[in-house]
Structures are given as structure tokens and as C-alpha cells.
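As a representative case, the lines below give one protein's residues and C-alpha cells.
***
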Amino acid sequence: MARRAAFLYDDRLADHVLSDTHPMRPVRLRYTHDLLDGYDAFSGSYSSLVAPRPASEDEIAWHHTAGYIDAVRAIGAGDWSVNPSAHNFGPGDNPPYEGMYDAAILSTGASVQAAEMLIAGDVDAAFNISGGLHHAMPNYAYGFCVFNDPVIAIKRLVAEGMRVAYVDIDCHHGDGVQHAFYDTNAVLTISLHESGVFLFPGTGSVQEIGAGLGKGYSVNVPLYPYTTDDVYLWAFREVVPGLLDSFQPDVLVTQLGIDSHYRDPITHMALTVQGFAEVVSELGARSPGKWLATGGGGYDLHAVARAWTLAYGVISEQTFADEIPSAYADTYDVVSLPDLEGPQIEDSVRDDARAFAEASVQTVHRLIFPPHGLRPV
């Protein structure tokens, strides 16, 4: 039976602007929707386009403090009696902007809505491309993220008694989600990311393995700059499938950031969109029947649109032609869904990336595998 999939989107998600110079450009969400629409991705009986609903304040409060929620609302309405810097807003990563609260509750609500659709059995998979804002902390913004929608959606699922596996393939470490579930064994968090030695947020070492009941349930696979598809896929396959099979989650939650793309302007990894899509396919093969996918980072706009189009193809079990639909191609001068070229990486850097990945995987096997009944390789 085909997987019943929902894509949560309307143009309200793409209408805000963080600043004129900010690398996070919500218009990338509209590009993704328009490309998928060009492929008629929502016309089948098993694929639906669903308008998102805002999260309630009570839902936001499952993770964030009342003082922080009030501050986001006030700052987003232009009330400067609140000190933005007290909650890490200001010039740089987290600029305050008009309508910030409304934008944040809508993207968060879409993830909660996706969780509720899975709980109700309305769909088997749901993709909220506006979500995946995995850095936000309980009382402050961080890394372009205001509210942490993966944490809030996961808490909704856990409240139903579900075991949740969270797999984060964003180029940046999924620090906010790890922080939220660091001491519980109800949620397994796995993050593959560019090492914090080289990239924000500076966390995500292999030695961060959880605490108390959660010891062994926080898993990190840091990778070297300019890691390419082959090494990334090798590291993924060495860690993720075995842990998911052992953990046996009721629902899989994934953060599908594509700032790992070799053309991304603010990171240093070297994946292609087809390499990314192969990772998503591996995740889909391990879905326990309920799969909540979110977006995340990605700052080359058309790499984002192409990668998330391929991801939704995996999620909804559709195959899209390599040739971009003519209306989109003519508008944006993009002709191919997969990358036609790959990154040019020197052999010595490839060797360094492979050695770094091998060291990370070996440490994960040593520290994490035994508590899960898996034999270190």
C-alpha cells in the first residue's frame, strides 16, 4: 500500500523577512512548493497539500518559558520596552523583525499539526518544510531559530506514549533537541553534522552521549569539512540503521536540513542533492509507519528547493523527472533536479574527511552500541 503523505504549506510561511542581509530567506519555502506543484506532486490520491495552523501558547509552553514567549510576542509587535538582547535577539543571527511571533507560531504549529495527523492515523508521513528549527532554547533564540518546533512536536508524540527516534542531518548540530531530551530514554536523538570544531554551534562531539536514563540515547557523528556523498552515506549506514532497528521507535522524526550542500554559502560540507536524497531514502526505509519530516537549514535557495522536492518524492513515494518543469525552469533558470556537477575536492581533503568519519564512527560504536545490544564493529 502506498504511503499516505501530507505536505504542510501555504504562502504565509514564506512571507516574512528576517533582514535584508540575513542568509535565512523564507522565500525558499515558496520555491520548494512551486517546484513540487510544477511536478503535480499534490494531485495523487495519496499526497495532500495541507494548510498549517498556528501553535497555541500552551503548545509553545511545552518547551519555552512564559517570559520568553511574552518577549517574542512583544518584540515581534514592535514593543521595545522589552530588551531583545535578554533573549539573544539583536544584530547578527537572530534579528528581531515585524511579525516574528506570528511567523514562529505558524511554523511551529505546522509541526504539531503534522504530529497530530500521525497520531490520528490520517497520514503515514508528513513534511513541514518550514520546521526543523532545532537550535532554539527554552528561554532564548539561537542559530536563526525562535521556537524549537521539533522539540514541541516530539513532546506531543511522547505524551501519547510513543517512543520517538529523531535523526538530524542538518550541517549544524541539533543542539536544542539534544538538550531537551538529554536525560530521557523515551527519545533517541541522532545528529550527523559538520564538527563543532569548525562550525556553529560548537557542540555535538561524540562524547555527548546523554545523562541519567538518557545515557546512550544522544548520538553524535561529527564530520570533517568537505565530506562528500560517499563518506557521508558510509558514516550514516554504519550508525543510524542499527540504532533505529534496536530502538524500535513508534515514530521517526527527521530534520532534513540541506545546508550540507556543496554550494551552501555558510557551511563547508560537500553533499549533492542526490546524495542528500539517498540519505532521505535510507531514512524512509527505516520508517516504522509514522514519519514526521521537517526542513531546517539551507541557504542556497535552489539547492533547497531541489533537495526538498526530492525529499518529498521519497516521503510520498513519487518519482520526479530530472528535467525541471518548464514554468519553473523558465522563471528561475534551473534545468535539472539532481546536480549536474559535483564538488571538486582535493584527494588529500577527501582522505582527511574519510579518516575523520572513521574515527567518529568507531567512537560511536564503542560508546553507544553496547548499551543498545549492538556489537561494536
